[in-house]
């Protein structure tokens, strides 16, 4: 039913030193809102610099959707302190606004109040805005302002060198890519454990769904809030990120070449529903970058992605083939409403533990049929994960097993892995985390989604969001900066504005030619 990792654990026990210096990074999204809980309509604060070039503080889909980015580092405390400093500084800048503490958006009565992110008049800036315009026309603006945490993770080269010896592999780049693909496949198989434990979006504002266009049996307070009683993460369900158009891609992650070719196919294949939208509106203004399944690689919605650093401005799929997978990006974390920075140390430590387990587990390939069952499992967990006696499919034999039993079996392995990691670090950190989170399967009311739903049912979505955002704003404004000084933030902002102007002054192509060159690059 679950992969046997006993041999891998025996190997790791003798090579536990290879897990030192794991690299991590966090990207946290949050909406700027007014103090009444409605979306901010102001421009991206000038004091935060250029959203195009500030590598710490930028925007995502909307001008009001902030994104905070930590540098890659192998120290968890440093990473979380860095993220905290960004929050503290931004809180001070947002004197009349707040940071929304939930994944699902605030109360939005008028969709026109969602302004697309503005990155200036350079070709790359205009392209980024046009891409977002395409997302708005394809999927709707409400879907695009859902917030989450992206967690970047890479194992040290020492791990891969020893792992290659275990697997009788010689080519280092292929070894690493093969290992990360194993991780990704197992994340598709068992990663639903993340929304079960940490999902925190069981409710939405009533106006999130147009004309009640859903067959789901939402409960309501008859005011501003809808919820599903056993939901864990509506953000990850079809209520949130609608990826039906991309399901036709059927990416199984069995090889890097297959993945790259599938991405290229999506970048160069028109989809009828997007063709019908057209490239230009009646006034001749562009409505999207192109009519293909994906406008650019970033449009692919998935709970996890293989990533590499693009060093020569080449296409993402080409860079992956050339450089191999260098790290993975976890995209299935909701904003943690119980943390002022949207994520806590327990989550980070557990992710390390679980992602290592995914690498050590079964190396079998994933069939299209199994992919379908895996997607169904994720949807079950996000919509009804805490339902008593809930069952999911393991493998592709259409045989259902109790979700709680599967979760407990995974934790049995995780605890053994935790003992090895704790021995390596000379503490009990990982074992204590296992003991704490194991109880979430004994009692689903302990999960993040159950706890936040209790609060939302009492107060409503809007009051809950306002109350938490004010609480965290006040805490962050009082907290001292630990790693980054106020002067550092000011220098970074000033430098980013200078860099944006420099790009704008040195553009040689007109925008249409720039877009055409982008299309050619994606097709190579």
TrEMBL record:
A Gene Ontology biological process term: glutathione biosynthetic process
Top-level enzyme category: ligase
E.C. number: 6.3.2.2
Domain of life: Bacteria
One matching Pfam family: Glu_cys_ligase
Catalyses which reaction(s): L-cysteine + L-glutamate + ATP = gamma-L-glutamyl-L-cysteine + ADP + phosphate + H(+)
Pathway in which this enzyme or protein is active: Sulfur metabolism; glutathione biosynthesis; glutathione from L-cysteine and L-glutamate: step 1/2
InterPro entries xref list: Gln_synth/guanido_kin_cat_dom (IPR014746), Glu_cys_ligase (IPR007370), Glut_cys_ligase (IPR006334)
Glutamate--cysteine ligase domain mapped to chain residues: 11-381
Molecular functions per Gene Ontology: ATP binding; glutamate-cysteine ligase activity; metal ion binding
GO cellular component terms listed in the entry, alphabetical order: cytosol
PANTHER family in the cross-refs: GLUTAMATE--CYSTEINE LIGASE
Stated name of the protein: Glutamate--cysteine ligase
């Amino acid at each position: 039913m679950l992969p046997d990792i006993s041999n891998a654990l025996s190997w790791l026990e003798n090579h536990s030193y290879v897990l030192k210096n794991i690299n991590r990074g966090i990207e946290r999204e949050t909406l700027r809102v007014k103090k009444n809980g409605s979306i901010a309509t102001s421009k991206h604060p000038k004091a935060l610099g250029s959203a195009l070039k500030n590598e710490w503080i930028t925007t995502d889909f909307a001008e009001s959707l902030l994104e905070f980015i930590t540098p890659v580092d192998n120290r968890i405390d440093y990473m979380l302190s860095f993220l905290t400093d960004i929050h503290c500084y931004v809180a001070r800048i947002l004197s009349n606004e707040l940071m929304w503490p939930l994944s699902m958006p605030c109360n939005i009565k008028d969709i026109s109040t969602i302004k697309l992110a503005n990155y200036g008049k350079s070709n790359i800036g205009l392209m980024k805005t046009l891409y977002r315009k395409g997302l708005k026309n394809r999927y709707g603006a409400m879907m695009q302002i859902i917030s989450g945490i992206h967690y970047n993770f890479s194992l040290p080269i020492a791990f891969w060198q020893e792992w290659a010896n275990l697997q009788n592999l010689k080519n280092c780049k292929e070894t690493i890519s093969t290992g990360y693909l194993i991780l990704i496949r197992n994340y598709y198989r068992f990663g639903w454990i993340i929304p079960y434990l940490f999902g925190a979006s069981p409710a939405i504002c009533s106006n999130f769904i147009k004309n009640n266009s859903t067959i789901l049996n939402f409960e309501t307070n008859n005011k501003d809030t809808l919820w599903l009683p056993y939901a864990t993460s509506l953000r990850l369900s079809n209520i949130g990120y609608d990826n039906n158009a991309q399901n036709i891609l059927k990416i199984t992650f069995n090889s890097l070449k297959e993945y790259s070719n599938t991405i290229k196919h999506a970048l160069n294949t028109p989809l009828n529903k997007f063709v019908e939208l057209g490239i230009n509106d009646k006034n001749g203004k562009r409505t999207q970058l192109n009519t293909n399944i994906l406008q650019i690689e970033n449009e692919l919605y998935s709970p996890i992605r293989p990533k590499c650093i693009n060093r020569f401005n080449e296409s993402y799929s080409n860079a992956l083939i050339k450089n191999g997978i260098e790290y993975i990006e976890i995209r299935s974390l909701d904003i943690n409403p119980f943390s002022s920075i949207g994520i806590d140390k327990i989550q980070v430590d557990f992710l390390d533990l679980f992602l290592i387990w995914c690498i050590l587990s079964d190396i079998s390939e994933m069939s299209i049929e199994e992919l379908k069952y895996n997607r169904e499992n994720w949807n079950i967990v996000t919509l009804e994960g805490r339902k008593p006696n809930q069952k999911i499919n393991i493998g592709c034999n259409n045989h259902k097993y109790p979700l709680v039993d599967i979760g407990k079996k995974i934790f049995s392995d995780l605890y053994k892995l935790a003992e090895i990691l704790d021995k390596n670090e000379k503490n009990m950190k990982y074992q204590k985390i296992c003991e704490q989170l194991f109880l979430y399967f004994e009692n689903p009311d302990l999960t993040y989604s159950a706890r936040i739903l209790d609060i939302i049912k009492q107060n409503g979505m809007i009051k809950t969001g306002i109350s938490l955002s004010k609480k965290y704003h006040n805490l962050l404004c009082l907290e001292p900066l630990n790693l980054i000084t106020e002067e550092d933030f000011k220098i970074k902002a000033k430098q980013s504005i200078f860099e944006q102007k420099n790009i704008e002054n040195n553009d040689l192509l007109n925008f249409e030619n720039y877009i055409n060159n982008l299309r050619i690059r994606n097709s190579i």
